[in-house]
Here is the input.
Amino acid sequence: MEIQQPPLMSSFDHVPVGTMVDWNTNPPSSGPHYPIWAAFQAYTTPVPRGYYVHDLEHGAIDFLYNCGSAGCPEVVSTFQAASDSLPDDPVCAQTGGGVRVRTVITPDPLIPTKVAAVAWGWLYLADCADLPTLEQFAKAHYGQGREDLCNPGTTAF
Here is the structure.
């Protein structure tokens, strides 16, 4: 397991949906992103990076996995447990949108490891899903994006 704090990218601009962005980390932990973000939930198909980077800007933790076509339900289950371990988010409670915490769980076939967690300006990379360290990462970096928002996102990609 490796935790990194790469430099934030200098541009946080919104770019049109579908724009190819050259981020400075893999997976991306800051930088240009789409004008709409992914809804805070678990997905079975990859959320395009431009959406989930916007989630990071809103203080989310993104849990990413690369398990190929076979999938890895044990990793997803561990990610869900890490998300569930976060305390209720008061910012989300104020919006009344039914979201308890700002997390996204999604496959990402482009990450260099089987497991990754990302927060604004932080990366967690590993070959296996270790619940104690994922919980620690999520609790340490949750809610620290540039915009402290918990508004509903999209599920239409």
